[in-house]
Write a structure and sequence with these properties.
This protein has 208 residues and is an all-beta fold. The chain is built from no helices and 13 strands.
Length: 208
C-alpha cells in the first residue's frame, strides 16, 4: 500500500523563477489520477543446507515480484520487474576453534546487477554462554557488466542469540562518481532463533 501526500509535494513546473523556490500555489500539468494504490506482491524462495560438526554449506535462490504487479499513480502500465537473488556460503572449522566462512551473493533486476563475494574468519568460544564467536571479514562488491564499486571490511561477534557487526565500505579510486560519498560505516543486528532439534533422543526410564 502506498499513498501520495499532495500537501508535501511539488513538481518541476511549479518552480517560481521570481523567488527561486518551488511553490505549491502554481498550478501543475502533472496528472495524478490515484493518490492511493495497493496491490498483491508475490515472492518465493528455496533454500538447501547441509551441516556436520565441522562443516556447513548453504545455498538458496529467490524471486521477488513474481506476478509483476502494476505500480502507478497515473494509471500507466508500470510493472515491477522481477528481482532474482542467489546466495551461497560455506563454513569450515579449520582447527578446534578457528573457522572460515566464504560467502557469495548475486542480485539481478531489470538489467541491473550486484555481486558480493568475500569471507569471514574468526574464533569460536564453545565454553562461553554469552559470546559464541568473534570474526573479521573482507568482501568485494561489484556487478556483471558494470564497474567495481567497493571493498568492504567488517568485524562482529555473537551475543547470546544476536549477531552484531560493523562494516566499512571503501570506495574504489576512479569510480567515486557512482556514489555521493566515498566511504561509509554500516551497522547490522541479526537474530538467530535457538535450535530446537532434539539432541538427546533416548527415553529416560528406570533400569531394573
Amino acid at each position: 500500500m502506498k499513498k501520495i501526500d499532495f500537501s508535501n509535494i511539488t513538481f518541476p513546473d511549479q518552480f517560481d523563477m521570481s523567488i527561486g523556490y518551488f511553490s505549491p500555489d502554481i498550478p501543475s500539468s502533472e496528472i495524478i489520477r490515484n493518490s492511493n494504490l495497493s496491490y498483491l506482491d508475490l515472492n518465493w524462495g528455496l533454500i538447501w543446507s547441509y551441516k556436520t560438526s565441522s562443516f556447513t554449506v548453504e545455498t538458496g535462490t529467490s524471486m521477488f515480484h513474481y506476478n509483476m504487479p502494476v505500480e502507478s499513480f497515473t494509471n500507466s502500465d508500470n510493472r515491477l520487474k522481477p528481482r532474482y537473488v542467489c546466495h551461497v556460503f560455506i563454513e569450515k572449522l579449520l582447527l578446534n576453534n578457528l573457522f572460515i566462512k566464504p560467502k557469495m551473493l548475486y542480485v539481478y533486476q531489470n538489467k541491473a546487477s550486484e555481486f558480493l563475494i568475500g569471507f569471514d574468519t574468526g574464533l569460536l568460544f564453545p565454553e562461553s554462554k554469552i559470546t559464541k564467536n568473534f570474526y573479521v571479514g573482507t568482501f568485494f562488491r561489484g556487478g556483471l557488466k558494470r564497474n567495481p564499486d567497493a571493498f568492504i571490511v567488517k568485524s562482529g561477534f555473537n551475543y547470546k542469540n544476536f549477531d552484531i557487526a560493523v562494516s566499512y565500505d571503501i570506495g574504489i579510486p576512479g569510480y567515486q562518481f557512482y556514489s555521493y560519498t566515498k566511504n561509509a560505516f554500516e551497522l547490522s543486528l541479526s537474530f538467530k532463533r535457538p535450535e530446537t532439534n532434539i539432541k538427546n533422543k533416548t527415553i529416560p526410564c528406570s533400569v531394573f
